[in-house]
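Long-time lurker. I teach an intro course on protein structure, and each term I like to show students one example going from raw sequence to a predicted 3D structure in token notation. This year I'd like something fresh instead of my usual example. Would anyone be willing to generate the tokens for the chain below so I can use it in lecture? Attribution to the forum is fine with me.
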Amino acid sequence: MNSYDELLAAIMPSDGPTRDVLDPATGERIGTAPVHDAAALTEAITAAQEAQPGWAALSDQARRDMLMRVADAIEAAAEPLALLLSREQGKPLNGPNARFEVGACAAWLRATAATDLPVEVVVDDGTDYAELHYRPIGLVAAITPWNWPMMIAIWQIAPALRMGNAVVAKPSEHTPLSGLGLIAVMNEVLPEGVLQAICGDGELGAAMVADPAFGKIMFTGSTSTGQKIIAGSADTITRLTLELGGNDAGIVLPDVDPVAIAEDLFWGAFINTGQTCAALKRLYVHDDVYDQVVEALRGVASAMPMGIGTDENNVLGPLQNRMQWDVVDRLVEAAKADGGRVVLGGEPDRDAAGNFYPTTLIADLPADNALVVEEQFGPALPIVRYSDIDEAVAMANSLDVGLGASVWSGDRDRARDVAARLEAGTVWINSHGGVHPLIPFGGVKKSGYGLEFGVDGLKSLAVPQVING
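-- Reply from a regular --
Happy to contribute to a lecture. Here you go:
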């Protein structure tokens, strides 16, 4: 698919119920998405089940080679995919946004294909011998969010396919075209049936969760929806990997150079206009450098252009949907009412056509302010002052989520000591939110369970089998 129009034509529904998809930056209609029902879900499940045994019968190397070819197809269609993603999700083409996300899809596929998972000899003592193998689960449900609709889909689909499973994927109802476009490109290479797409809202997702055909459910999204998935999968005892809500803390120690860390702090918080599960969402800064860090952040943030994603100059875009805009607006207003000092932003244009919320920094907030303790998932960062590291660690650990965290210091050993005390699945030092296809990723507390990426991610998409003797 060499052009945007060709890609869009390939995914437009030819019959059945549909709904309009709008550009969150302009309100302009992009196209239509199908609205699937239970019968369509059954059809997708049946097709995937029929295709899965043949896919699993291929050698591991054959599947790995196929994923490499899929990566080639995504790269060949990179610009149309990025344009579709930008128009539907809102993220700009440039910066760590749409083109970056499409590139990450190809990179993750290649890393997933290149990762070795040899048979493990667990006992060989002359008397006993046992090997640990990993077999296909069968059918995997991939339920993906609207913030990184292509990249997170690949995080779920790639290891599932690599391990010999078939996949039924449901993109978010907010970004269905991005998911459909990506899967259409992948299906130019994959055998027919092994990767199916189904579109609908939470009701359709609930039907997927309850269906005993699925041996594994992968979900990235809110904690509240994750809790429903856990409950809904109880009868079938379906395996789960859940990457749920976060409210990542960053702790800045007094030995930093505020100017040197300011841009990394900014992108840790504002990548994808703050719409990232593992973004930096609350920043605790030591008294000694508090004012300097706030000012350095203001300088960086004020220089980052926000606007329509297809404008090559922009690096920040709108919020993807009005529901999320309302969340950010409510929390910023609560921060202002609580005496927070607005360093930047905080005054949206409420009459604008798009879902734009200005880049916002709010300082001098109490630790229990709503903007601090609730996940904003948007371009508003609360900054809290502290004077004692034990106090900062206690504040960072005080919430019931723990996806990621970061420590900022000129002394790496000191930073690691603080990192070891934080209750988070990943703690970054002098950066925030970066992920790597070979480094395991997952949360603690109500941020979910299960690991993605690398060897651990492959194992999570398979059934362990011990051959003893």
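Some talking points for your students: The chain has a mean pLDDT of 97. The chain has two domains: 4-244+447-468, 248-429.
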